[in-house]
Amino acid sequence: MDYYIVVLLLGVFYGFLVGLIPVAGATTGLIAVYSFVSYFHDPYMLVVFTTAIVVTSSIGDTFCGVVMNIPGAGGAAATMVDGFPMSRRGEAARALSAAISTSWVNGLIWGLLVFLFLPYYTKIVLYFGTAEMFGFLIFAMTCVIFISSKYWFRGVIALVAGVLLGLVGMDPDTAASRWITVIPQINLDTWSLTFTDWEYIEAGIQMIPVMAGVLAFPELVSAYRMTTEKVTLTKGVIKEQLIQGIKDSWKYRIDGLRGGFIGGFVGLIPGIGGNIADWFAYSQTVAVSKKEGHPVGQGNVRGVIGCEGANNAQKATSYVPTVLFGIPGAPFEVIVMGLLMYVGLELGTPAVLEDQRFFDVLLSSYLWALVIILPISYGFIRYAVYITNIPFKYYFWPILASLVWTNSQYTGLFDDYLMFAMCCAAGVLMKYFKFSRVSFLIGFILSHRIEASWVQFHTFGYGWEDLLLKPLPAMFIALAMAASIWGLFFNKARIDFV
Question: Where are the chain's structural domains?
């Protein structure tokens, strides 16, 4: 048990640190864990460590958004709209205090609702047969394409490309090599050019370079090019502003709870999560404040509270589809799934769903991480400016070196670096041309599940009429259609940088 406490504390401090680093957040922090995942001989220790990272990075990334006007992660982007103007006029401590209080309370509420009752939610899986799972996957893919991005057609292309890339390697039915890419080789003796199969990907393309190159690297490049405006904290008023921020979170608790509800709901929808929840919550706060004659957007603490309510709430509920069905509720959950798979905990399988110890460890590590991070966050406010005002160029190279090191752990050969470089190039191009990287990654991680579900759907004699006549599949198809219509015509919170 002492080891679990040590691992929990390490996860808390590591998660808070990566949250403070601009654009890093839970995603980049979790990717780096791959380089030392082999040291977790007890799989439940990795559950403790990853959960602590998710909880604490969610709070830590608020500091960058408020003080530097650069999000620690995508989810803190909405906080910057009102948080940074408050910092400019000397109210950084108030904004941070209100954000931390709101995020923490909603994290506690939704964490209890999710992790305390998660073992009972597993009974839902009993109602999912082949047709139900196939309908659920259609609903998940539709949400990823039409809700999280403005460019739905490019989202379709990105999703299909991710699925195709995920299927590269050995065909599980025939054991034959599938879509193995040929690469040029030069014979130095004859100076002739030949093309051979790339044996490196015969077992499939690894998750680590895809996640690091497509998702993390483009954000590092963007942050490196950003300019920041330094702010200062007046030491004499930090305590007063901290108390005022707590009072603000109580005064505007309806905005915070509304944001928590939105974040909790969005987290339940497979593949969405992340920054979209914060922008949804913020857009509702803007709408309500305009009706009341107190608009946000120019440094109103109410805007900070509204979006921060969705922060930890979304992180908690995104575990539901991830654990129950093995379908990630947010991009960071893709990495959590991969890490736990390394130690034998494959989420969404009967072995995990029947493991009571897994659920106990998940609940306790989540709650203890919340308890520990609260005083740390409040105490760190007075030092936030000194840490977060460090130019990003000093973070860039260590983070990049960490990603390269992580990707080189597969074989240690040149192929590791080549694959990572290819994924980085693909990620930069996708970001530049507005192809949804989240859609691509979700397609990649779910490729084998989509293929298996498709094969089972046809092998067991199901037809498209079963999706429309059976209750659960019909409900998912209806929800998919509603998500498509709403995403195309009514969604005002779509974003173009995922």
Answer: 2-168+205-489
